[in-house]
Amino acid sequence: MATTTKIRPRALVRASGGPRYAIALAVDALGTGLLRPFLLLYGVTVLKLSAPVTGVAMTVGIVAGLVCMPAVGRWLDRGARSAAVAASMLVRVLGVALLLAAPAGHVWLFATAALFLGIGNQAWPAAHAALVATVAHGRERDAALAAGRALRNAGLGAGGLLATVALAGGTGALQAMAAATGLAYLTAAGLAWSVRLRADPAAAPAGDVAGEPAPRMRALLAANVIYVFCLNVPEVAIPLILVTQLHASPVWSAAVFVANTVLVVTLQIPLTVLLSRFSRRAVLVFSGVVLAASYLGFLAAASLGPAWSAPAVVLVSVVCTIGEIIYAGSATPLVTALAPAHLLGRALARLQLSTGFGLAVSPAIITTLASHGPAALWGGLSAATLLSATAVATEKDSRTRPSDPRPQPQPAS
């Protein structure tokens, strides 16, 4: 099996879809960082909606966006690659346009905008992973997926930082950020479309059997719902514990968020490469163990008293982020390695369904557990994650494809 230890930056960019596609990812992430963290604030301050109504509309948009995933999977299996990525960006342009057009108090236009933003946000990961899997193979593909995540987190962080500074301008600044987000999505869609990459579904690579069904991956997909809770720990669980239970300054929450972003940007590729000597399933199991240990670390940190709890939580968050990085570097690559090439899109769509569902329900579950104290929150998350890791470890792969070939990319017609 190929290793990524000698991949150079230029080769990594090429394996990730090329320079234009990398720029598209960066522009898209920058635009997303400008608006997504402040979408709730937009609904409350610009459209004068109540916070509960705004939150429900956003949640409905996210969940409803998952309904499109089976169709996205079938489109990808017909060969769509750059067109699918561009479409996921363009549909968010429509969402932003509806945000800007919505008059104050109009909850249905806001909910429709949230729906289109949700569709784009849910469709993008599967479309992006399918594109990278068509360009790169084996462990080179794993590193390319890691590079895409690092680049995206850098763009999100930069966009969020710019938006935080701009918020001093009030509602006008929020509307300006929404407009800038729409322009960023439109620019990114044009760049992604210009790559003009598609796969030939008729070209079955060696190792694929005609009519071969997609692997069930039931344990993997069910476990993934729990694994993705780690993505909301820095944004939901840690601020909730620090501010409401430890009565610490919000600065500590900001420090956790910044540290998470910096670590993902700097360590996603090196850690993915370092662990490429092990099987993807073993690495995914290991990530569950690391995450579970970090949750127990948060529980211990919460009991240290007011002087030490907050800095201890920040320290443990580094371990949690490392677990997140290992998880992100193994889950999608494992699915792309298991799926037959002609059913790659549907396999990635099913993974995104489990990811989106986990992200949608985790805030409610985290806040409910936290209301019963740190032991319920961190102990519950640790037990559930260990159980999920065990399920992943015991599930049997239905197929083995050592060379992990992919259909050759074709120019778009």
From TrEMBL:
Signal peptide segment: none
Transmembrane parts of this sequence: 21-44, 56-76, 83-102, 176-195, 225-246, 252-275, 282-302, 308-327, 348-369, 375-393
InterPro entries: MFS (IPR011701), MFS_trans_sf (IPR036259), MFS_Transporters (IPR050171)
Compartment(s): Cell membrane
Basic and acidic residues: bias regions: 394-404
Keywords: Cell membrane, Membrane, Transmembrane, Transmembrane helix, Transport
A single GO molecular function term of this UniProt record: transmembrane transporter activity
Cellular component GO terms held in the UniProt record: plasma membrane
Pfam family, one: MFS_1
Bilayer topology annotation: Multi-pass membrane protein
Start and end residues of each stretch annotated as Disordered: 393-413
Gene3D superfamilies hit by this protein: MFS general substrate transporter like domains (1.20.1250.20)
UniProt-recorded name of the protein: MFS transporter
The species this protein was found in: Bailinhaonella thermotolerans
